[in-house]
Amino acid sequence: MKSESGAPIQGVLFDIDDTLVDLETAMGRTLHHVGADTLAHLTEAEWAEYKQLYTQDPHGYYDEYLAGKLSFVEQRLHRARHAQAAFLAEPLEGEAAVRWNNAYEAILPLHFEPYDDVIPVLDELDRQGIPYGAVSNNVHDYQRAKLDKAGLQRVAALVGIDAVGVAKPDPAIYLEGARRLGTEPSRTLYVGDNPVLDAEGADAAGLVGVWLDRRGGQETTSVRRRITTLTDVLRIMQGIR
């Protein structure tokens, strides 16, 4: 693929959660494990609703964490309380909250896995000699451990929010990713599952933003480049838009 200037793309940066690593599935399996006793009465449909409430975070508690209003554990517990409100008799407070969080933290990494399309894409980038890395809206060490647990140790360049003290969509965090790859921002792809934080944010920072719409069918009028599988990154790099 060529950049807006017509020059070839030099490198690729990826978001991590729900782009490289299937975090939504990992969360769902963990919630089922941790709630096996207290939520044993849920029907299959209620389990699906419960998991969706937690993973989709409709109240934006993770955004409050990024803004410094909640700790990482606090945002997780707020999401759990909201999701469980309609289903659980025992509230997640005090020792119950501590036990729940400890169990969740222990189980979640056991389910970190890459999507099926990740390894083939990274293999092809390696074959072509194109450097790649990740930029994430979480701290470096937590995301480093996540990538390693998912078998993605090869994603060596990693920028977390603690690297530059800001989160996406601040331009500085994307630019730090390009700096670490040694690529020009305007010749660097940034691929992620969030149309605003990933595609639009990267574009605004001067990179080439690509929205990975894994669910398909989502509507947005402002994103310029949309794909439905990571494999399409390779098609984009071959000049197919």
UniProtKB/TrEMBL annotation:
<dbReference type="Pfam" id="PF00702">
    <property type="entry name" value="Hydrolase"/>
</dbReference>
<dbReference type="InterPro" id="IPR036412">
    <property type="entry name" value="HAD-like_sf"/>
</dbReference>
<dbReference type="GO" id="GO:0044281">
    <property type="term" value="P:small molecule metabolic process"/>
</dbReference>
<dbReference type="InterPro" id="IPR006439">
    <property type="entry name" value="HAD-SF_hydro_IA"/>
</dbReference>
<keyword id="KW-0460">Magnesium</keyword>
<protein>
    <submittedName>
        <fullName>Putative hydrolase of the HAD superfamily</fullName>
    </submittedName>
</protein>
<dbReference type="InterPro" id="IPR023214">
    <property type="entry name" value="HAD_sf"/>
</dbReference>
<dbReference type="InterPro" id="IPR051400">
    <property type="entry name" value="HAD-like_hydrolase"/>
</dbReference>
<keyword id="KW-0378">Hydrolase</keyword>
<dbReference type="GO" id="GO:0016787">
    <property type="term" value="F:hydrolase activity"/>
</dbReference>
